[in-house]
Amino acid sequence: MSKIEIVPLGGIGEFGMNCMGIRYGDEMIVVDAGMGFPEETPFGVDISIPNFDFLEEYRDNLTAIILTHGHEDHIGALSYILRRFNLPVYSSRFTLALTEKRLGEYGMLDDVLLHRVSAGDRIKIGVFEIEFIHASHSLVECFSLAIHTPAGTLIHTGDYKIDDTPVIGKPYDLEMLGRIGDEGVLALLCDSTNATVPGRTPSEMAVIPAFQEIFEQTEGRLFVSTFSSSLHRLQIIFDVAHEYGRKVCVLGRSMQKNVEIAEEHGLLKITHGTMIDLSAARALDDDEICYLVTGSQGEMRAALWNLATSTYKGLEIEKGDTVVLSARIIPGNEKSISRMIGHLYKRGANIIEEKRRLVHVSGHASQEDIRIMVETSRPKFVVPIHGEYRMLFRQKEFIKNHVAGYNDDNIVLIENGNVLEIDQYGASVVAEHELHKTFIDEESSEAIEFETVRERKRLAYGGAVSLVVTVDKSHKLTGEPHVTFQGVANIDPLNGFSAKARESVSKAVADMRPEHIADRKMFKENLRIHMKRFVQKELASKPVIVTTVVEV
Amino acid sequence: MSKIEIVPLGGIGEFGMNCMGIRYGDEMIVVDAGMGFPEETPFGVDISIPNFDFLEEYRDNLTAIILTHGHEDHIGALSYILRRFNLPVYSSRFTLALTEKRLGEYGMLDDVLLHRVSAGDRIKIGVFEIEFIHASHSLVECFSLAIHTPAGTLIHTGDYKIDDTPVIGKPYDLEMLGRIGDEGVLALLCDSTNATVPGRTPSEMAVIPAFQEIFEQTEGRLFVSTFSSSLHRLQIIFDVAHEYGRKVCVLGRSMQKNVEIAEEHGLLKITHGTMIDLSAARALDDDEICYLVTGSQGEMRAALWNLATSTYKGLEIEKGDTVVLSARIIPGNEKSISRMIGHLYKRGANIIEEKRRLVHVSGHASQEDIRIMVETSRPKFVVPIHGEYRMLFRQKEFIKNHVAGYNDDNIVLIENGNVLEIDQYGASVVAEHELHKTFIDEESSEAIEFETVRERKRLAYGGAVSLVVTVDKSHKLTGEPHVTFQGVANIDPLNGFSAKARESVSKAVADMRPEHIADRKMFKENLRIHMKRFVQKELASKPVIVTTVVEV
User: What is the mean pLDDT of residues A190-204?
Assistant: First the structure.
């Protein structure tokens, strides 16, 4: 009997870009196809996606994509994987509604087969049988997956928390999980995002009292910013606004889109007349309106940044306004959020942050949630997923020290590009591939070559020199070389540096042997090296040198 | 009688780069000349310094530079300001020792007049009389300044905390501060770094129990990473190491330098034989050694990063090692620290972070320290300094709500480049200058033009196209254009894009009127625009276009 192969393409050792291949025999399913948010933004890179080249060797094995839920770090790369591998997609109604919207924008809807499944369903995809376990999270209609294979059952938790009292939908389906646990689980692939956090993650309900207080005490206008996908939170804000006699106006495209889809599907229940548009909102008194806005992470294109720094559709933050930041700080956004808060204070706003009031709870399992997950499913092996290595490690450490029966042998740490073979007798990494993530160019939304990004980094670091020389048929220089500088440091325009550079090149060429000029490749390379040394000596700079040889 | 003019060049609305001009009549002193750590590092920018161009208009007024203490964000730009304005420098023995080291490296020592002052001193610099108040902070020999002028007395706190039991030196000199307060203080310029933190900042002593426990319980090798300037912390580590029978080996240049200077000046008291070099350290058993290392912020050039990811002078982190991160996370460093921790875990190290054990305390005043500062000095006005706008604002809010007698009128928020006029009758901003910070090029350590950094950003974002065309005397194209791409996205090398680009340019030139080619400036600009549109249409890219016209 074969072993199961687990092949993570993303999300292990990093936040976001979650994607994993699971193979048995000659069939492979892909769980999630998420996008990531790399640090390469200064280089015109907007997002990253998993390196789907890597799946080419499995092309004939691929049978389906399963999406655990609708967050961008789980579905954001779907259009890219589907363009290369036309696979059927399985997920919940709401997750599919979000993906349909996106695929429709790319004109891809006609070519894609979307299968709607519900919590509790059990479906067969070739050799795999998959059960969809209702999972609680900050989003709705999320799944943990039980993936049954002839070599045993895997549980893939997706993103989850054990929420006994979610605002929308039911608690995490521990009963179903327990039943599958009783039947025997080979491995648990378990979300590590909050594995460093002790205790239980508070229920989505936990923020209601703070919001009630805020709505009760606030006299001016209220602006609440949260993730547009945090549907429980949106429901609470609509409910509390209604309770305290405020209308709600939604600002920011992603928030409007999500509210629309969620209401269409009956997930968000908005009392008739509570949600109003901007012109109606502006006609109301300050204590009658709550704006629900995008931009809690200080994103410069989102509504809140514009409200704080200039105007958003004619609206701006003013003295007396109250701004509630109902979201955590995603690592990497600290500085932009801090800057945005500075702008809000300058405008005279009162700011309520999660540090000071309970206006946000996490959507991810803390340590005691993880304990419940492990103790309910009782897997033979635990494989921490979703998180930087630090979180994966801390999940291992926690389970090892706090759940009986687990140790270094049955908690397995893997990395992106690893191939983990697993069956009843053991789990071991049998191959390690180095996967460069695929960067997406911000202008074209197309994949951008890794090498191109490297070139941009070099240009960014030292600028560029364009050197043009003209040679005649006798391999002699004709006229003066042309030198142009872009982003090169320490050029004093007054001291005739360009002239000096031109002279230096002319002299260097005069010293070269004709056969070394005749060999154009060698000639160009020698010019490049000469210019590089000249610039480094004169300016202590290391620009990229681009040489062009014109022949006349 | 004149008013005092307060002119901040840095440190207001930002972390770091602290520098302030204080003028009375036709005399101006400068308090601190610090460096900043801008986000422009991808563009070859290492550090930033205040825009000293701005001081040119005060050139004839400048009389002295006073340094409150020796942290880089207060002294790091000293060599740059001294090269332009040869002013005498006043500070403590230890601060001067740190600056001497740096100025010596630049060969500037002979030209600079350094005046050593001690806590309690009162000196006269022209119209100003300055008293140096002993301040407690994470560093030693720090000052708050009382700056007496005919229009009243300013207190500049520098960086401080009210530490009643520092490890090295005396507590904050509240007696002196109180005496000056009794004499009357016009304005308090007060550190805001920790103005969002409730309560008192714990004493430097507070970390001793945690370190004693760690040294007692650890069996393997110990690595402690902290800021190399945190002398109290270093003293504690040397003491506790000695107490528990470990030797200390210092790794990393800045740490070695600071330990050397501090020991030379009798500030750091190291029991004979406790500090050993690397080769002696390697000969010891694991439980006999503590390495004191740089790199708590995940800096890729520092000792700890190298220990974690490869080797540092033949040494590397191994299974069984314990690493103590005895420092806070400076905003902006979250990701690199998290990555470093991941590497440490992978190597099998045990990691102790300040989040989980009391192995770090701040050097800055929390809210209750600020209250003590205000209540002891009883200034007419408070001007929050040192911090992002958010912290300045929160200091104002705290004092307004928690210290009697202060309100919107006598707590004054200013920004870099403002000119604040102040006397007994009022305080108001009379001018607002926009100050671009000065970037320092990483390769040359020289100032790099703001415009050059902008060019680099454009290159980084879209890459560059070099276009070369050759025209003859009749303004006709000779030969084919040359096109070179660097960092341009979406070029498929197989589809002959370069040929297409060349053709397109040839055709465009053929369509131009000879007089438009004869006007070389117009010709180049038209070529640039043509190429820009072509690339944008074909590739959806926005590179920088560099055009060269060769004449034959």
Answer: 97
